[in-house]
């Protein structure tokens, strides 16, 4: 068996067989038919599923490799950006060299769009797109796994329970990430497991430790192993999160009962909602690499690396008017154990913005959320303000 076969994306020679398998998958064809033509599919399920298969077969007839597959996704992503955002902006691309592979360590708000937007920025800048780390909780259905692995995704085995199994999986994952960077293939991975549903972007030191676990026997320093990965912190901000009400509901239920049980199709619904929902202004900020002459010196352990990543993500996070309106609504001291922070006046932060129009828009958005969930809704939008100005920066 080839190294990393159980987690890696598909190779070019596997594309056609995988597409053939997908075009015969009744679950996938049914989901796509229901999504595109719900009324007709309810009445004529068999016919609509067959028609969907024929359309997909025609659209994918020329696809022979991964690049071909991504070439049909790029126009779709462009259309999503045009129809669900007011604008998408980027910053920090000047920190990146086109001939270098980076490990993009990103905050995480949306299952699909976070890495897709990073790849979109790289693609538009003439750079190689990333391989994308996804949790195995998202690929319970075989067709989802196939689609993800066709699109340069590799698998993070989060569902393992045995200690020895987890360690082996971590070592394999760590080795695979180093293999990608060493071979010139950039990687995207989230800074912690799962989306930051409360808006509080924090790097899990366990992920930093995972990066190093495959190198512990090579007698190289921890800091050198980290620098070799060319880590770039990435901050992604959405003016409006299409999944904000569902995230607030989950936070509410966890607070009330101590747990939240997902429905079987909940992740799939979140994916669709995140892609199709209105987002307003979206910004992707690339930080400075933790390698090279300008790299921070204090990278001696996982906690110090996590702090540096957090600092860049919080500092580079593009605040939106929605964040400031939420901050105003909850007040300065509503979050316990947080020191009082000084936040500039909103008109100073957004001097060229029609703030009345933005406030009305935010109010309408808030009112769509059931009242019982609104405190959690406001917290998730206000938290980036706290993170940004916590240190007076």
Automatic annotation (TrEMBL):
Domain named Phospholipid/glycerol acyltransferase: residues: 87-197
GO terms of biological process kind: D-galacturonate catabolic process; D-glucuronate catabolic process
Taxonomy, superkingdom: Bacteria
GO molecular function ontology, one term from the record: acyltransferase activity
Signal peptide extent: none
SUPFAM superfamilies, A to Z: Glycerol-3-phosphate (1)-acyltransferase
Pfam families, per the entry: Acyltransferase
Protein name: Phospholipid/glycerol acyltransferase domain-containing protein
Annotated organism of origin: Endozoicomonas elysicola
Lineage: Bacteria, Pseudomonadati, Pseudomonadota, Gammaproteobacteria, Oceanospirillales
């Amino acid at each position: 068996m080839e190294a990393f076969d159980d987690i890696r994306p598909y190779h070019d020679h596997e594309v056609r067989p995988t597409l053939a398998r997908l075009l015969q998958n009744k679950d996938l064809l049914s989901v796509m038919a229901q999504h595109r033509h719900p009324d007709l599919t309810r009445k004529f399920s068999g016919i609509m599923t067959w028609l969907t298969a024929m359309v997909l077969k025609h659209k994918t007839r020329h696809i022979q490799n991964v690049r071909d597959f991504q070439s049909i996704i790029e126009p779709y992503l462009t259309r999503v950006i045009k129809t669900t955002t007011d604008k998408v902006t980027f910053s920090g691309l000047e920190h990146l060299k086109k001939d270098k592979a980076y490990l993009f360590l990103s905050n995480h708000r949306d299952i699909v769009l976070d890495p897709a937007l990073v790849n979109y920025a790289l693609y538009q800048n003439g750079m190689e797109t990333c391989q994308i780390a996804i949790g195995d909780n998202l690929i319970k259905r075989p067709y989802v796994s196939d689609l993800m692995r066709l699109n340069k995704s590799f698998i993070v085995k989060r569902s393992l329970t045995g200690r020895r199994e987890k360690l082996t999986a971590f070592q394999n994952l760590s080795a695979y990430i180093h293999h990608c960077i060493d071979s010139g293939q950039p990687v995207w991975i989230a800074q912690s497991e799962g989306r930051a549903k409360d808006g509080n972007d924090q790097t899990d030191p366990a992920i930093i430790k995972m990066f190093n676990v495959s190198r512990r026997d090579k007698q190289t320093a921890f800091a050198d192993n980290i620098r070799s990965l060319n880590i770039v912190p990435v901050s992604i901000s959405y003016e409006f999160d299409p999944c904000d009400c569902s995230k607030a509901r989950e936070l509410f239920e966890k607070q009330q009962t101590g747990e939240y049980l997902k429905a079987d199709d909940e992740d799939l619904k979140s994916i669709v909602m995140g892609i199709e929902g209105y987002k307003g202004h979206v910004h992707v900020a690339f930080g400075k690499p933790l390698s090279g002459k300008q790299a921070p010196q204090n990278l001696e352990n996982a906690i110090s690396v996590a702090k540096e990543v957090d600092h860049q993500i919080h500092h580079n996070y593009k605040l939106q008017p929605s964040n400031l309106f939420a901050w105003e609504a909850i007040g300065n001291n509503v979050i316990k154990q947080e020191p009082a922070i000084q936040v500039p006046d909103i008109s100073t932060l957004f001097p060229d913005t029609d703030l009345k129009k933005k406030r009305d828009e935010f109010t309408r958005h808030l009112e769509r959320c059931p009242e019982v969930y609104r405190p959690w809704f406001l917290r998730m939008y206000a938290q980036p303000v706290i993170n940004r100005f916590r240190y007076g920066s």
